[in-house]
Design a protein that fits this description.
- This protein is α+β, with helices and mostly antiparallel strands and 566 residues long.
- The protein is 20% helix and 25% strand.
- Strand 12 and strand 13 form a beta hairpin.
- The protein starts with 6 loop residues before the first strand and ends in a 6-residue tail after the last strand.
Length: 566
């Protein structure tokens, strides 16, 4: 072992041993090159292969490249500062994370809440989805390799055992079969023990970690049934739907699990939204403005986050929805939006705002209905008889439609149903999107990829980077706002009725579409899309396009208003 006070490369002064394992040791060190006192801390990992040859050196170099790439683009993976070879040993210098690992929170006999377990699973899946998208397998997920920073956020550490998918070698192998030793008993699935890890191997290990949190029973002590599946639910009090997700994560055979973290994260998001479906579909009749429609209540959960993306609250809500039958079992759900007054536009203090979002002005709206989701491809096809979308899927939003196309859809839908369907005005759209909030997004001060579909390579406020799916997702895959509307941020841009005006000077105060003045050759779109920076997904953002133009990130949702037909 390295003695305290030893200096590597005339720069890194060893302070103390942090831990050791089959591949070497980890030390806390001072970085003497930084001209401050006290010196900043870093982590030194010493790796000790059996012998050094060109192949080992090449793999070590590749390993360092992988670690550097991962950490550069995700703030919840420790950064790699340096790597070097010295005296037949390899060294990695990494960021020191102030905090503690989850072995201090998870312990035998201690059962943690379902809320804790869901949050743990969600945070690590967000990181792991990014890792898997880079074709990397962590291979040793366990409580000791999950750090809680001082700000409360979780980090995934110890990527010393990562490997590129399909490459069965490791820089520390004495022989190919050495891969079996990477992993931890109880957290390691059978295919990994045989030296054939897959992304789903990480899913298994994370599932075992969450089950340990819920049950307080160490993974290697849990019994198995006749099919080799772990028996754990009798040790915990947990929602059946959440238990189903965990059961799928820890299936004995990898083919029964989620293939990767993105799949698992989507399943978890769907669970969190599962309360949005009617629990008691009793029919009621609500009179809204000048028309009466038969509506049903549905319940859902909303979430609020702070500027760094931490959830600060969640609430159970209920709204009324009218179901328009389009034929062939296709239904268009329209949410009842109560009338009210709100402040339209963004304040001067809002980060990354645009001048066309000014001046803020009060708008008073009458009740109306708005699509629960953007119009889907199944709904479009039921009315129009075709599907122009690039990203195909019945429950994905229709895209590649122009403003003119959307107006024709509304006209045909109105003739089909005898009701006045139209595009929402900008004021109706923003009022519905905000749902009583004044923050940049309806879920709070920032946006994250577990809340909306946008380019997660970029951030807003102090939130971390995350997943970039590079395509649309099924409508309703992310949390709704307080009115019960989904996908108002991201997924696809949404056409609105209004013509383009460079600012809000002279804008209507009654919520109607702004058709006078401006540029009638430009029509408005709101909400951002899967391909956009997060700042373009804010509630107040307004962009335009020519009405005949179509793109594969622009769709629309429909409004139902008593006397308007546009």
């Amino acid at each position: 072992m390295l003695a305290a006070g030893k200096i590597l490369r005339n720069r890194y002064e060893i302070v103390k041993l942090l831990g050791s394992g089959g591949f070497g040791e980890t030390y806390l060190a001072n970085d003497l090159d930084i001209p401050v006192t006290p010196k900043p801390k870093c982590v030194v990992k010493r790796l000790q292969p059996e012998a050094i040859n060109p192949d080992i050196q090449r793999l070590f170099h590749k390993e360092a490249q992988i670690l550097y790439k991962l950490a550069q683009n995700h703030e919840r993976i420790p950064k790699l500062f340096a790597y070097f070879e010295e005296n037949q040993e390899f060294y990695l210098i990494q960021e020191f994370i102030e905090g503690h690992d989850l072995s201090q929170e998870l312990s035998p006999g201690k059962k943690l809440s379902e809320t804790y377990a869901i949050k743990l699973l969600q945070e690590i899946l967000e990181i792991l989805a990014y890792v898997h998208q880079n074709n990397i397998i962590h291979r040793d997920i366990k409580p000791q390799n999950i750090m809680r920073r001082k700000d409360g956020k979780l980090m995934l550490i110890d990527f010393g055992a990562v490997k590129e998918i399909g490459n069965q070698k490791t820089i520390l192998s004495r022989q190919t079969s050495r891969t079996v030793s990477i992993g931890t008993l109880g957290f390691m699935p059978s295919e990994q023990a045989m030296g054939k890890p897959k992304p789903s191997s990480d899913i298994y290990a994370l599932g075992k970690t969450v089950i340990f949190a819920l049950t307080g029973v160490e993974p290697d002590l849990l019994k198995e049934d006749n099919d080799g599946e772990v028996i754990w639910k009798n040790h915990a009090s947990v929602n059946n739907d959440f238990a189903d997700i965990l059961n799928k994560m820890v299936r004995d055979h990898f083919t029964g699990r989620y293939a990767n973290a993105t799949e698992a994260l989507q399943a978890l998001n769907s669970l969190m939204l599962g309360y949005a479906f009617p629990t008691a579909p009793s029919q009621t009749t609500k009179v809204i403005s000048a028309f009466a429609l038969s509506t049903s209540p549905f319940q859902f959960t909303t979430f609020t986050v702070d500027a760094i993306g931490l959830m600060v609250s969640s609430q159970q809500k209920q709204a009324e929805v009218f179901a328009e039958k389009l034929g062939n079992n296709v239904i268009l759900e329209m949410v009842s939006i109560k009338g009210g007054r709100f402040l339209m536009g963004s304040p001067d203090t809002e980060e990354e705002r645009h001048s066309d979002e000014s001046p803020q002005h009060g708008v008073t709206l009458q009740p109306f209905f708005l699509g629960k989701y953007p119009v889907t491809q199944a709904q479009w096809e039921a009315v129009m008889g075709n599907n122009p979308s690039r990203f195909q899927g019945n429950n994905r939003p229709v895209e590649n439609v122009s403003w003119n196309d959307a107006v024709v859809f509304c006209q045909k839908l109105s003739r089909k149903t005898g009701r006045n369907y139209c595009l929402p005005s900008e004021a109706e759209w923003e009022y519905a999107c905000r749902a009583g909030t004044t923050t940049p997004f309806y879920f709070g001060e920032t946006i994250m990829p577990n809340l909306a579909n946008y380019d997660g390579n970029y951030t807003y406020a102090s939130a971390p980077k995350g997943v970039y799916l590079q395509q649309t997702t099924n409508v309703g895959s992310f949390p709704p706002n307080a009115f019960g509307l989904y996908d108002m941020h991201g997924n696809v841009w949404e056409w609105c009725q209004d013509v383009w005006h460079k600012n809000y000077n002279g804008a209507p105060s009654d919520g109607s579409g702004w058709e006078s003045g401006g540029n009638s050759n430009r029509r408005m779109r709101r909400g951002g899309s899967w391909s956009n920076y997060p700042m373009l997904c804010r509630s107040a953002v307004r962009l335009w396009h020519e009405p005949g133009n179509w793109f594969y990130d622009i769709g629309f949702r429909v409004a139902l208003v008593p006397a308007r037909t546009i």
